[in-house]
Each structure stands twice: as structure tokens, then as C-alpha cells.
Amino acid sequence: MALNAMKETYIQQPAVPQNPDRQPVRKKSSITKGEKILYLSFIAALVMCALMVLQNQSAIQSSTQEIQTIERSIDEKVKQNTDLSVQVKDLSSYERIWSKAKELGLKLNGHNVKVVSGQ
Predict the structure, then answer these.
(1) Does Lyase show up as a keyword for this record (predicted)?
(2) Do 90 and 96 touch, CB atoms closer than 8 A?
């Protein structure tokens, strides 16, 4: 009897009516409009931050190059100043001044000489 009851349940299943006028059911996307807007705004903010970082890196690099150029210029000026100070010491030696004075016809008068200490 149990077998007959089982056969009847299989046979007596109601058929699913198919309606040709009905449109197929579309699956709703799991991402809503609000989430899409949030994702897009997050991506836009991320791109803006990346661009700002690149701009800052570029500014830092150009500043570094400018600083190096100025440092090279300073080194050149320091070298020139050192060379000129050595040249001043050579030109202001007593022997050179005395020889120039003799060339110009000046004579050493002991009464008119004042000693100045060079500190």
C-alpha cells in the first residue's frame, strides 16, 4: 500500500503552468546604486591622493636639484675667495711693497716711518 501511495503522489503532482506572456525573472545585481556611488567616490579620492603624492614628489625633486645647483655655486665662490685671499697675502708682502716703492723712486726715511702691527 505504501508503494501505491508513493506512485500516486508522483503521478498526481500538479503541473507548473507556463505562461508565455510572462517575462523572465531578472536577477537583481548585488551592488546597489548607493554602493556604486561610494565605490566610485572612493576610487576618485584614491586617484586624487595618488596625483597629489606625485605632484609633491616632483616639487621635492625640483627643489633638491635647485639646492644642489646653489651648493655647487657656493663651493665655486668659496674656492674663488680662498684663491683671492692667497693672492692678497702674496701681493701685500713687505718685500713686494718695498720693491714697488723702489721702482717708483721712493726712499726709506727712518723719521717718517710708522710701525703698524698687522693683526
Answers:
(1) no
(2) yes
| pLDDT digit string, tens, across residues 2-44 | 555 555 555 555 555 566 567 777 776 688 999 999 999 999 9
Evaluate whether 95 touches 101 at the Cβ level (below 8 Å).
no
**Gyration radius of the chain over CA positions:** 50
Q: Which residues have CB under 8 Å from 101's CB, separation 6+?
A: 108
- What gap in Å lies between CA 62 and CA 68, rounded to an integer? 10
Distance, CA of 2 to CA of 8 (rounded, Å): 10
At 38, list the grid cell: 561610494
CA geometry: angle 32, 34, 35, nearest 5 deg: 65
